[in-house]
Amino acid sequence: MTNGESGVGANLSATVGGAAAVAPTGPDQPPLPPSPEDEPPPVIDPRRDRLLAALTLIAGVGLVIGLPFALKAGAEFFLPITIALVISIALIPVLEWLERRRLPSWLAALICVLTFLAAANVALAAIVVPAIEFFRRLPERIDRIQANLAPVLDLYASLEKYINKAAAHIATIPKVRTATPVSPPSSLLDLIATSAPTALVQIFFGVLVVFFFLAGWTRTRRRTITSRASFGGAMATARVIQDVVDDVSAYLGTITAINIVLGLIVSGALWLIGMPYPLMWGGIVTLLNYIPYFGPIVAALLLAVGGLMTFPDIWVALLPAGIMIGCHLLEANAVTPFIVGHRLTISPVLILISLSFWSWVWGTPGALLAVPLLIIIQTVIGAAGKPDIAGFLFEHGTLVSERKRGRWGVRQN
User: Fold this and answer.
1) pTM for the complete prediction?
2) How many CB atoms lie within 10 A of CB 340?
3) By three-state DSSP, how is residue 404 classified?
4) What angle do CA 137, 138, 140 make, to 5 degrees?
């Protein structure tokens, strides 16, 4: 084709294209259908969205109200599972360390479970067995306690009658049971053997949950992340899982180390002043220090009772409780904030709410689980997003006054 033919072909194409573009606007040509870009957006009824959001909010409120009663009624099922999950999350860093050493998942999980059971057995032998033996002698030492408290009771004469009645009542209860003494368990196996069948099943069930959770952790986490539909969803899921593991394991690991050191220091101080069973008291301090605010108070009260049972002088008898309070104040105000820092800082109001809630649901085990569960819930909510209830109620027109009022409360017509 020559250059002239090429020019003619180009002009013809331009002419045809121009005609095609202009043709729909002519009077004899039918109009073209509108393009998708020219279609108006679909009309969404805001009342329907508000109704669905209101129903969702009502269902959420009903779930929040009904869940505590379901957890309390099903404590025999939910409590072992929750304890096992918290323990499993705390043991995940140890599991991953063992897996990096080329150990199979089932073997690493078995080592973690056996290590935890050994630590629980040592804690039982150091705390529970001496505590049962020590406090079983409380009726025999009630006279010494009353003699130590006599100067204090004289200062509070109005309360003397009630305290004496309570002390007499405590002294008379064990006399009926002296005919059948109960030997304390010497190990975790003895405690399991002498426990009720329900407790035995719960302990065995919890151990199995910990083992199978740890054995399948790596595979379950990989499947959970890779099953997301988008890369962003996979990254968000991985981030939430890692944050929960890091925060819970860091909190429990750090607090456990701090509590053990605190218990050892208290044990050493009690040994120096001649307090019997110093390791038992150190174990009690370590265990109760997991419960924020109330645990150290209970530990100080128990040490005061133990001191009154042991020492004849009231000032020496109250010295163990004073040692505990002093060590706890130093730990709570200097050591823990310095070590933990601001990464795991939690609002005291949220701690008190969580402590009271889980104590009401599950008693003492719930109080021990209050802070770890609060950390898990905060981490998940922080990643998923907090529900904007105030914005739902006020910003979008749910609650609107009939007429605007003036600054001084006068209706504006």
Assistant:
1) 0.66
2) 15
3) coil
4) 70
